User: What shape does this take?
Amino acid sequence: MIENSTDTRVIRSRTLMENALLSILEKEGVKRLTVKNLCQVAGINRGTFYLHYKDIFHLIEETALIQGLLSVFEPVRIQELRNYPDHEGAYPPIAKAFQYMHKHASFFKALFHSEAPAELKERLQYLVGTRLYENLRRDQADKNESLFTDYAIAYLGNAQFGMIQHWFKTDRAMPPEDIARMLTAYIRHAPCLDHKV
Assistant: This one.
């Protein structure tokens, strides 16, 4: 059972686990991130871990850093992005997200590593890729185009995830504002959206 209490013991255990997660990612990389290793670093037993989290991916999703990213990387209104008056600049929510990932680069670089487990990649792809386009699905719900919408979201989500992963792979060679501007332009001119909006 997942513990949701605000009890000080719960807060302490979760803090120990999140700190252990950050330490492993920074010192050993995502390949060494296992429940066993995390429990050893945190000084807790596996039972304590599973009292709070379903698995290692659940812990990652609940970290303050991922929650912070999700608070700035909210689903966008595609029409609003495409109509944003500054056609040369980055759409502000996308710029904020890249600035946030840049600020916390050691954490996000480890997560977006090419050798990360497939399940982690899938979850990250949803959180920072597919999730961004959820409004597109809602906007098209009554237009009998759900199949097309799902493919458009998969296309956009995969492309965005790939850009973020490549940005970290190249050690953020491009400033966050520039990569955000590039992604904004790609979304604005995505051929699959011409069918939709």
User: Anything to note?
Assistant: Residues 16 and 43 are 8 Å apart (CA to CA). The chain is about 70% helix and 0% strand. The mean pLDDT is 88.
